[in-house]
Amino acid sequence: MKAHTSLAGAAAAAIFTTLSFAPLASAGLLSTSSYSAPSNLEKRQSSTATPSAISIPPSQYWEGNDGPWSDFFVQIGERQYIQSVRMMVGTSVTSVLAVAAGTGCPDIYGSGCQNSRGGVFNTTASFTWQPNSIYGTRIEEPLGYSFSANAGYDTVKLGLNGQDGPSVQHTVVFAYNPSDFWVGIFGLSPYPTNFTNYITPQTSFLSVLSANNTIPSTSYGYTAGNQYRLNAVYGSLTLGGYDLNRFTPTGVSFPMFGDIGKDLSIVVQSITTDSGSPSNLLPGGAITMFIDSTVAQLWLPTSACTAFEQAFGITYDSTSGLYLVNSTLHTSLLQRNANVTFTIAGTQGGKSVNIVLPYGAFDLTAQFPLVANSTPYFPLRRAVNSTQYVLGRTFLQEAYLIADYDRGNFTVAPCSWDINKVNTPLIGTIRRVNATSEGSFIGSSISSGSSGISAGAIAGIIIGIVAAVALIGLLIWFLRRRRNAEKKRTAELDAANHGFGDAKAELSADSVKPDGTYYAASKNGGDELAGEPIHEMTAAERVKAQELEALNAGKTGYSEMDAGGEYYAPGGKLVSPAAEMPGHDTIYEMPGSDVHEMPAPQPGRDIKY
């Protein structure tokens, strides 16, 4: 039985739209996977917030029997049963390959085997290990690698134990023995792993992180690092984004190939050198090559290998299958320090990018069990056919790879070696397609000369936002104050027209003028001016126009309260009796009936309302 990889879902094809800065990405981009959500999802972060990309710190070790190479810490298991190992990054691998304890280090490998292999994983010592069976891994099968391993599931976390690194439960883990991959491999491919069939795909580490919103998209940025620049520069790995301080933007991106087993394929238009003859190291013309950090070497056509042999004086060792370099040639090549330029593009004749490798990138060391003793070697392998054309980890010493699976494209840019920046990550976030976020920024592409938004610009944006919010708040306050003032003025005018001023509509025609005559033609009129009957407003229509009784101790009836004279002082105390008009007779609202609105309170008692 063998394990296979399959496409989780169609990746969206689009131009590489990326830039979104982590410092402002506290909020606003899900994978296009078609399979159902797995059971190994951990607690989801806020669904409305866009997480920032995660920078994984390197282990600061240099390891491997074909390098050495910069690797990363990986924790397997949980709680007190966690086992810490170090692993290389495998861009074509969908699972985690850990060197098995015991069988991975037989006695013939010596006492230092476990440390040399980056640590080993003991499945029986893990409390959370769930065994499956023995399966063929099919890792790098086109290159002739084929081995089986003990497959199962466990919790996997990136970074040192105790660090707040990304973690995924129920991750597919292979515990293997062979020395083909001397140090374990941490798979970055988002495609699922299948055991014997395609019915029950097991989601990859990267896909789970994207699905549960731990990272902003199904993407990553990676470069291998090297020992020949700036007294050694460690590898760089960013999940959900990239490190802007590790590459020079080119404005060029490539579409992923439809074959998921060769998704990161490019067209190598030419390979040339500035020292030695021939200068053309790809005499057969342009070829399609697969970028894969799982292996170390460059796998080229035989004609290209022959051109390298002639230009650099290297010879092929049939026993090891490597180009071993003796001490004399090694010294000569170091002094010569030739550069090799790879001109790559997405298609034949398409817009190209140059990746230049100095000789230091080819100055590697082969160790046991590849060879009996440590020996310098040139990382070149002879490919049997086009399925073996691979640009391995050697190429990624000088190239920065950004893979965006949500959009179905990737970028290969030359590494940047600014001594003031290379060890200080500047993380950019890649959002999912069509995702938006308040407070975050999205650029159209990674373009030449773009170094992101500066700290000063960010501060200016924040200050501008704060000022805008303050201005809006001030405007709202002013409008509310103006509206309240208008309401107050309207209420005062309304009160003046409804019983609290000279309410002419309430005057009876029988009322006496100041000169002693009546407003009506006769005293018996009883109608309001203009001859209309008097109709008081009901309480339901005029809630606030509640009439107040007027006290006139010298009369048997009571009139309505006039605006003249204060009747209530603050606090509701009676000040002085006040009648509406200085009438001489009882005033009737309607002809023939007395006005008895409310019984009068006894003098001297507080009036409550």
Give the helix/strand layout:
Layout lengths: L2 E3 L48 E3 L5 E2 L5 E2 L1 E5 L6 E8 L5 E4 L13 H4 L13 E7 L11 E11 L8 E10 L7 E4 L5 E3 L9 H7 L7 E5 L12 E4 L1 E3 L10 E2 L9 E9 L13 E5 L6 E3 L1 H11 L10 E2 L2 H10 L2 E7 L6 E7 L5 E3 L8 E4 L1 E3 L7 E2 L7 E6 L4 E6 L12 E3 L25 H42 L113
Parallel strand pairs: 6-11, 7-10, 18-26, 19-25
Antiparallel strand pairs: 1-12, 2-14, 3-4, 5-6, 5-9, 7-11, 8-9, 9-10, 13-14, 13-27, 15-29, 16-28, 17-18, 17-21, 19-26, 20-24, 21-22, 23-24, 27-28
Describe, in plain words, how this protein is organized in 3D.
By secondary structure, this protein is α+β, with helices and mostly antiparallel strands. Among the domains are: 169 residues, Acid Proteases (Cathepsin D, subunit A, domain 1), CATH 2.40.70; 175 residues, Acid Proteases (Cathepsin D, subunit A, domain 1, Beta Barrel), CATH 2.40.70.10. It has five helices and 29 strands. A seven-stranded mixed sheet has the order 22-21-17-18-26-19-25. Strands 2-14-13-27-28-16 form a six-stranded antiparallel sheet, with no helix packed on it. A six-stranded mixed barrel has the order 5-6-11-7-10-9. InterPro entries: Pepsin-like_dom, PEPTIDASE_A1, Peptidase_aspartic_dom_sf. GO terms for molecular function: peptidase activity.
Features:
single chain, 609 residues, Cathepsin D, subunit A, domain 1, seven-stranded mixed β-sheet, 12% helix, globular, disordered C terminus
